[in-house]
Every structure is written in structure tokens, then in C-alpha cells.
Amino acid sequence: MDRRMVEYEAKKQTPLVAYILLVVFGLVGAHNFYLGRRQQALAQLLFSAVMAGAMLWLFVGFASAEMRDMSGDFDAFVRRAYTFYAIAIIWGIGTFGWLVVNAIEVPKLIAEHNLRLHERIFGE
What we know:
Layout lengths: L2 H9 L3 H11 L4 H5 L3 H30 L6 H49 L2
Helix pairs in contact: 1-5, 2-5, 4-5
């Protein structure tokens, strides 16, 4: 096997790796880093960080509310609970939709990457 073919085989991307990254680390955009889509990966990472931060902030609010006397502040607790669930639903729907679109695009993106790689290595 010639050196160029070894280099191509070592650097080409595979759908299996992209899909494993999408399923396991999709929330943080790991599959997009693998596919070379850094801007989209950073956007997914930022989206997840903001949503997780908002949920953590609300969760800490729940914990502190539980420690206090809840007799006169029940409405605030309910508003916080609704906000928590709304953020969770938005995060879930947004991320799921984003990952489904990414899953559909994976074969095309890998084919494009491997074609560019082949042209660069073999000069065709």
C-alpha cells in the first residue's frame, strides 16, 4: 500500500465515529468538532452551558427555598418551578431538533470531507 493511501485511511472520517459522538456527547457539540464545524459546535456548547446554568441557578433557588419557611412565599416557588420546567422543555426540544438535523447531515458532511481529503492527498 502506498504512503498516500495510508495517510488517507488514517485521516478520513467515518459515520460510526460521528454518530457515536452525536449520541454520547451531542449536547456539547462533540460531533460537530469532529466534522470540522467549529462554529456550530461552539454554538451548541454555549447553548447547553447557558441552559444548564439557568437550570442550576433555579435548582439552587429551589434548595434555598426549601430551607426557608415556605408559608408566605408559595407563589414564588411555583413561578420558579414553572420557569425550571419551561427551560428544561426548551432545552430538550431545541437540542433534540438540532441533533436530528445534524444526524441527517452526517453522511453528506463526511463524504464532502473525505472527498476534499482525497483531492488534497492524491492531487486529483
